[in-house]
């Protein structure tokens, strides 16, 4: 399967009907549907499909940096690179993908890439769908350099929501956060849950491994489970910023919310030969499920 620019996409589907699509551009998950065929991830109607630029929406991989803190491009280069299918990946620990359908992707630096970021690595990404329709991403990054390097990583996840004003995030209360709207100044979350009535652009720190996004209008909850990723980015551009973005519709900020598992505050360091593993698992359940369990 290919997109309108000829970029290859891999489709995953399980017998009960849930499905996902993964683009080789950026290793980006660009669709995740439940068994009723409803799309769970947001993609902008103004998304620009190019062969060298990530699409506004889905789940993009930000690596090796988040933001634009160095000379590298914003959120790192991995999301704008062409990945390849890894037909013979090293095995994952037992039970890693039992009973799931999955695809393995691989990113390695080209000669040109090494001029921008002079570190040799292998970035393996497994995207899988369980029989119940849960979506999982497992990243393995190996240092195949002669010297250590460090990196940040974010699974930049755009959830599709009914109306941002009807959404709240639970699990981040009392966490410290860096506010990107105030030069990354540090604050402590005071609310019982995070709700939205203006632009929010924060990096929550040392967050719990399970966080929930509750959509009251849809009566649906996204449960986010993560491993190896202590931080969590929460972003909604709101009206003014949305209007300034070429690849986002003026009102589309109402239908999206980025809640992104990340390792930012303390970059991950790898010595030669070392490997790091990080995981994200997303489940979409009816809201009543969460209050009953
Ligand atoms: C968010 C950042 O995660 O990504 C925002 O916190 C940024 O500051 C947003 O504007 C979108 O970034 P980009 O590069 O995909 O337009």
From TrEMBL:
It catalyses: alpha-D-glucose 6-phosphate = beta-D-glucose 6-phosphate. Substrate binds at residues 56, 74, 79. Its EC number is 5.1.3.15. GO terms for biological process: carbohydrate metabolic process. GO terms for molecular function: carbohydrate binding; glucose-6-phosphate 1-epimerase activity. CDD domains: D-hex-6-P-epi_like (cd09020). Pfam families: Aldose_epim. GO terms for cellular component: cytoplasm. Keywords: Isomerase. It comes from the Eukaryota. Belongs to the glucose-6-phosphate 1-epimerase family. This is glucose-6-phosphate 1-epimerase. It comes from Vanilla planifolia.
């Amino acid at each position: 399967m290919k997109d309108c620019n000829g970029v290859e996409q891999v489709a995953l589907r399980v017998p009960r009907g849930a499905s996902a699509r993964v683009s080789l551009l950026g290793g980006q998950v660009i669709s995740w549907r439940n068994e009723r065929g409803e799309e769970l991830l947001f993609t902008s109607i103004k998304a620009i499909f190019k062969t060298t630029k990530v699409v506004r929406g889905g789940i993009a991989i930000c690596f090796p940096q988040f933001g634009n803190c160095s000379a590298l491009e914003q959120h790192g280069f991995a999301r704008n690179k062409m990945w390849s299918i890894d037909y013979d990946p090293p095995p994952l620990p037992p039970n890693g993908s039992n009973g799931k359908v999955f695809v393995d992707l691989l990113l390695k630096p080209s000669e040109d890439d090494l001029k921008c970021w002079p570190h040799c690595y292998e970035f393996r990404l497994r995207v899988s769908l369980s029989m119940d329709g849960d979506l999982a991403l497992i990243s393995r990054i190996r240092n195949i350099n002669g010297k250590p390097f460090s990196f940040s990583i974010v699974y930049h996840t755009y959830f599709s929501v009914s109306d941002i004003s009807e959404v709240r995030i639970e699990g981040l209360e009392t966490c410290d956060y860096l506010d990107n709207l105030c030069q990354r100044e540090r604050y402590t979350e005071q609310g019982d849950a995070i709700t939205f009535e203006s632009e929010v652009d924060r990096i929550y720190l040392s967050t719990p491994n399970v966080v929930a996004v509750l959509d009251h209008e849809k009566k649906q909850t996204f449960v986010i489970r993560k491993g190896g990723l202590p931080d969590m980015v929460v972003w909604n551009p709101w009206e003014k910023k949305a209007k300034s973005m070429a690849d986002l519709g003026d009102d589309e900020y109402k239908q999206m919310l980025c809640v992104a598992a990340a390792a930012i505050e303390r970059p991950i360091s790898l010595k030669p030969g070392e490997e790091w593993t990080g995981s994200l698992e997303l489940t979409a359940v009816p809201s009543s499920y969460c209050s009953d369990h």
